[in-house]
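I have been asked to look over a protein record a colleague put together. Alongside the sequence sits a line of tokens, each denoting a local backbone shape. Please read both lines and tell me whether the tokens look consistent with the sequence. Take the sequence as given and treat only the tokens as open to question. I have pasted the whole thing underneath without changing anything:
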Amino acid sequence: AINGEAAVEWLAANPAPAADFVYLIDTSISMKTRRESVVELASLDIARALLGPNPIYREGDQIHIWSFDLNVQDHLKLDFLPGTETDLRARIGSSLSRLRMDGRGTSLTKPLTNALATFGPASTNELSIVLYTDGRAKVPAKEADYIIRLYKFYFEPTNRPSNVVLIRFGDRPLTKDAAGLIASIGGRTIAAGEPLVLSGNRPIEAAAKEPEAKAPSVISVTPKTIQFSQPLAAEI
């Protein structure tokens, strides 16, 4: 059980860090035939995070919708507040529905560099980066090294939490250099349709529970003599 006063006191002394959730949609022309599937999956992933049985957004978090091909475009930035989930979902759905897959090429360098450079400096927020792509991008070694240095500089010294997930559409495997880059920054690759699991923020319940009550110790002493101040009843 959670003690209300204890929870308030604990949260005041240990405020949970806010989180930035960046959803990046590949809008290169190679994604054109998958547009409907991509938009539907991104909408579903965010809806689950907003309204699912285990919502992960908390007050103070920000939700970002970006698209990328050879460059990155920022489409939407939302501040999450409890009670606004339905409105946020509608705005996100509207933004995703306007995406057009007509970009000339795919670059993983730009979206990862932009996300790390934007949310890395002077921030202690948890960062989640989710990329929806067909995985047809190559990452030159110099660009990969730069991204890895950015990640290590902003996240490793303080063990700052992060999630990097690349969701791959189609049967073509991710290129070796791209897969190596994702792994080097603590990320993982999943196929479209696999559950998207993001850690989100630490649940309040995990830290605000009352300590378990310990059973009292009992000491039994057997007296040698018992004296009664009144006569005992015959039935006793």
Notes: The two ends are 45 Å apart (CA to CA). DSSP finds six helices and six strands in the chain.
